[in-house]
Design brief:
By secondary structure, this protein is mainly α. About 80% of the residues lie in helices and about 0% in strands. It contains 14 helices and no strands. The mean pLDDT is about 85.
């Protein structure tokens, strides 16, 4: 289709839509206390929330990579009955309200939940309202991003290379490590970055499952929510940090997710 003059009936709503998305971000940047940014960023409360967010999001991403890559491989290569439904279940956290995800985690992993009760009685481990609970909540919400990305990369990879490795005597595990995984590494990296960014911004499941205890479970999104009542300037600084991370992630994955 040749490019010509765009019809106003499409351009006008497009511009309104663009303004609707961009203006709140511009307003945030305009109200940011740039002169005080370094001081506030390294203040005790903000620094603590930032450190906890980075640690928990990184640990959650490790959990997602360890569990999500094999899960994506099984979905892409395995002959599973009801695979369509399994894939739908894996992606449910993408559309599930995060608060509902937190409630579900609490019912299963809480002290009175079927798994949480066993963890408590056997190992003395209680996940709700702890830093470990933050990691679990963030991993639950973020893992589908990794699984979708890696599964897509696996489906796009040429299976004949794996078949050639098998004919040369390589085992399934050796083929996965030496052939499959390197060939889909860009998809793994993209999914890992998206997963980390999603974990960093997680709010609903975290506050429901892990609560809000400064220094233990108060991550940046929770700190933003609290600071709006007591210290709006700190809330703006934390919001700018989260915005910068989001923009950096999208910019780094532009060719893959935004289409250049």
């Amino acid at each position: 289709m040749s490019r010509g003059r765009l019809p106003a009936v499409l351009v006008v709503p497009a511009l309104v839509g663009l303004a609707f998305l961009v203006l709140p971000l511009v307003g945030l940047l305009v109200r940011t206390p740039w002169a005080e940014l370094p001081t506030r960023l390294f203040s005790a409360g903000v620094g603590e929330a930032l450190r906890l967010s980075l640690v928990c999001a990184s640990l959650a991403t490790v959990v997602c990579v360890v569990l999500g890559v094999p899960l994506a491989w099984v979905l892409a290569r395995g002959e599973l009955p009801g695979r369509r439904w399994i894939r739908a279940l894996v992606t449910v956290p993408l559309v599930l309200p995060p608060v509902v995800g937190g409630v579900a985690l609490l019912l299963v992993l809480g002290r009175r939940g079927p798994i949480g009760e066993l963890l408590d009685s056997w190992f003395g481990v209680s996940l709700p309202f702890t830093t470990a609970g933050v990691v679990v909540a963030e991993a639950f919400v973020a893992m589908p991003f990794l699984v979708i990305s890696v599964e897509g990369a696996l489906r796009a990879a040429d299976p004949r290379i794996e078949e050639a490795a098998a004919t040369l005597g390589a085992s399934r595990w050796l083929t996965f490590r030496r052939v499959t995984l390197p060939s889909v590494m860009p998809g793994v990296v993209a999914g890992t970055v998206l997963c980390w960014a999603r974990a960093l911004g997680e709010f609903g499941a975290t506050i429901t499952f892990a609560g809000n205890f400064p220094g233990e479970t108060t991550t940046m999104p929770l700190a933003v929510y609290l600071a709006l009542e007591t210290d709006p300037q700190a809330a703006i600084v934390l919001s700018v940090v989260l915005l910068a991370v989001s923009v950096a992630v999208l910019a780094s994955l532009r060719d893959r997710w935004v289409g250049g």
